[in-house]
Amino acid sequence: MRALLALLLCAAACFGGPPRRVVSQAVGTDELLLALADPGQVAALSHISRNPDFSGVAKEAMTHAQLNGGDAEDILKFKPDLVLMTSYSRPELVTQIRKTGVQVCFIERYESLEDAYANLRLVARAVGHPERAEALIQKCRQRVEALAARLKGRKPVRVMAPSTYGYTGGSDTTFQDLCDHAGAINVAAEAGLKGHAPTPGEQMLGWRIEVLVVGGTSCAESLAPFRNLTPFRLLPAVRQGRCALLPGHLLSSVSHLRIDGYELLARQLHPEAFR
Q1: Fold of 2-141
Q2: Are strands 82-86 and 42-44 parallel, antiparallel or unpaired?
Q3: Average pLDDT of 139-145?
Q4: Would 2-141 and 157-274 be classified into the same CATH topology?
Q5: DSSP symbols for 32-90
């Protein structure tokens, strides 16, 4: 029901014609907007849209205006007729924008690939180009099917995404979705963790972690913080430097660009499938 309501609200933004000035408040909606809208419809992107550590469209974002901090005044100075926001946008900010009468297209779920497809359709309708979502989804499905064919019959690799912040991605997360498509078992989910749950300490030592999935470009650098952090420092995968590397924006992607992450992780976990 909530998804239907969101669709109707977004579709309402197109009443009288597609929106002419769209502001994207989050990096995930930046990626959706740039894939679906005409360039002239993009009034501004999020304040981190040009940062390649977080954004999968950093280079493309350089040609568009960017929010400074993303508060209501900052958003409204671009005179939007549609603002793209998410469930991780500040609730008070969403309320402020809605009170001005500006249409808000609200992205509520993004954990799974099907969520990503639904969000593509949602934003495409909101910006007046529904056919673009269907074309892009078809291309995404072809890539996912091709990857699944390569990985068919291969033993999944037992992985974990460590964090120095005290939380670990379990089931119902984008990391679980990444594992589901890259030939991996998320050991945190296997142990019963749901969502982004507190790391359970020494219990991890019994998880039989084969590879740690980390952001960055160097295993040595990315694992360095964990070598002095208990219980991570006791894990064989940390001591032996067994890791798979993903750019930060793919490790936490909430858009259709997550498929790049599937392919990159699968290549590292199952290199024999790509020879």
Answers
A1: Rossmann fold (3.40.50)
A2: unpaired
A3: 98
A4: yes
A5: HHHHHS-GGGEEEB-TTTT-TTT-TTHHHHTTS-B-SS--HHHHHTT--SEEEEETTS-
For residue 101, give both structure tokens.
Answer: 């009468």
Entry pTM: 0.91
Please write the tens of the pLDDT for every residue from 165-196. Answer: 889 999 999 999 999 999 999 999 999 999 99
How confident is the prediction for the chain on average, in pLDDT? Answer: 93
Fold classified for 157-274: Rossmann fold (3.40.50)
The residues spanned by each domain of the chain are 2-141, 157-274
